[in-house]
Amino acid sequence: MIFMIGYGIIQDKLGLKKHLIWLLSVILVLTGPFLIYIYEPLLRHNFSLGLAIGSLFFGIGYLAGCGLLDSFTEKMARAFCFEYGTARAWGSFGYAIGALLAGIFFAINPHINFWLVSLFGVCFIIINMLFKSEQTVSGTHHLEKVHKDDFIAVFKDIKFWIFVLFITGTWSFYNIYDQQMFPVFYAGLFSSVETGTRVYGYLNSFQVVLEAIGMAVIPFFVNKVGAKKALIAGGMIMICRILVSATSESPYIISLIKLFHAIEVPLFVISVFKYSVSNFDSRLSSTIFLVGFQIASSLGIVLLSIPVGMLFDAFGYHFVFYLFSAIVSVILLFGVVFLSNGRNTGSRSAVVQNETL
């Protein structure tokens, strides 16, 4: 979370300059040697030190880095006039292919996967070296530099904290449901846990492919209805999926609503970016995404996981799912009333920056 804050502020100051992207490139290249020759031995012989160093490495390169790359891609999308979701779809396709190949290579030797990450890191560096913005951007104009007061203004804006509360009350609960509870719940619907786990793996792979398609097409829906309405629609899909899980024990029905995830995730993530750009200073889109979305949802998960676990131990799945549905419904009504429909205009919301990469 600390790195997310730093990444957001620094990237907003850099604009389209790729200093932090170069840092991620280096970390990708170093992943194989680090995991094999440093991290793995440390976990075997000095677990605490390995945990500390691993937290630093993964925090800089992956946990915070993924959000940074998303926010940078969104800046690029606005600068070069394409949809963020259309570009992000290839990430979902890559995840689906990577998960398939990683499973095969893991059965042979897990180290193969680590070296492949480094190999793709080299490819990432080559792409960064070859791409030059000045060769493709035309008709650009220079924006005002970002100052400390600009960041302070966002954090003083009541609309920002309404947005954070909405994210915490929807996305955090949904992620606890989807990541921590649903896989075990789903596996328990079958004659054996092993069968359920295997079917879940197949279903999840299919869902990732659908999610990639959703990333490509949903931006056009969001553009048509607006970011606020799209966020509300995403919340309604969350409620539908959680509520059906509470009321049904049919593996067929539960499998079907699992696929709703392929609609909900693109709808929510794309809407978050479009909402932040249309309601806040677009120069600060990285900070707003990493703090207002990534950190808010992660902090919500950290704070809520323990009490949710206690409720689950006491009352079971169905009670918790009903409770989640009720809470998300209340927050959804809150969003209908208080989320803004505003759209920024002027230089502070301009989308193109005359910056070299």
Automatic annotation (TrEMBL):
<feature type="transmembrane region" description="Helical">
    <location>
        <begin position="51"/>
        <end position="69"/>
    </location>
</feature>
<feature type="transmembrane region" description="Helical">
    <location>
        <begin position="89"/>
        <end position="108"/>
    </location>
</feature>
<protein>
    <submittedName>
        <fullName>Oligosaccharide MFS transporter</fullName>
    </submittedName>
</protein>
<keyword id="KW-0472">Membrane</keyword>
<keyword id="KW-0812">Transmembrane</keyword>
<feature type="transmembrane region" description="Helical">
    <location>
        <begin position="287"/>
        <end position="307"/>
    </location>
</feature>
<dbReference type="InterPro" id="IPR020846">
    <property type="entry name" value="MFS_dom"/>
</dbReference>
<feature type="transmembrane region" description="Helical">
    <location>
        <begin position="199"/>
        <end position="222"/>
    </location>
</feature>
<dbReference type="InterPro" id="IPR036259">
    <property type="entry name" value="MFS_trans_sf"/>
</dbReference>
<feature type="domain" description="Major facilitator superfamily (MFS) profile">
    <location>
        <begin position="1"/>
        <end position="343"/>
    </location>
</feature>
<feature type="transmembrane region" description="Helical">
    <location>
        <begin position="20"/>
        <end position="39"/>
    </location>
</feature>
<dbReference type="GO" id="GO:0005886">
    <property type="term" value="C:plasma membrane"/>
</dbReference>
<keyword id="KW-0614">Plasmid</keyword>
<comment type="similarity">
    <text>Belongs to the major facilitator superfamily. Oligosaccharide:H(+) symporter (OHS) (TC 2.A.1.5) family.</text>
</comment>
<keyword id="KW-1133">Transmembrane helix</keyword>
<dbReference type="InterPro" id="IPR000576">
    <property type="entry name" value="LacY/RafB_perm_fam"/>
</dbReference>
<feature type="transmembrane region" description="Helical">
    <location>
        <begin position="319"/>
        <end position="339"/>
    </location>
</feature>
<feature type="transmembrane region" description="Helical">
    <location>
        <begin position="229"/>
        <end position="246"/>
    </location>
</feature>
<keyword id="KW-0762">Sugar transport</keyword>
<dbReference type="InterPro" id="IPR018457">
    <property type="entry name" value="LacY/RafB_perm_fam_CS"/>
</dbReference>
<keyword id="KW-0997">Cell inner membrane</keyword>
<feature type="transmembrane region" description="Helical">
    <location>
        <begin position="158"/>
        <end position="177"/>
    </location>
</feature>
<keyword id="KW-1003">Cell membrane</keyword>
<keyword id="KW-0813">Transport</keyword>
<feature type="transmembrane region" description="Helical">
    <location>
        <begin position="114"/>
        <end position="131"/>
    </location>
</feature>
<dbReference type="GO" id="GO:0030395">
    <property type="term" value="F:lactose binding"/>
</dbReference>
<dbReference type="Pfam" id="PF01306">
    <property type="entry name" value="LacY_symp"/>
</dbReference>
<dbReference type="GO" id="GO:0015528">
    <property type="term" value="F:lactose:proton symporter activity"/>
</dbReference>
<feature type="transmembrane region" description="Helical">
    <location>
        <begin position="252"/>
        <end position="275"/>
    </location>
</feature>
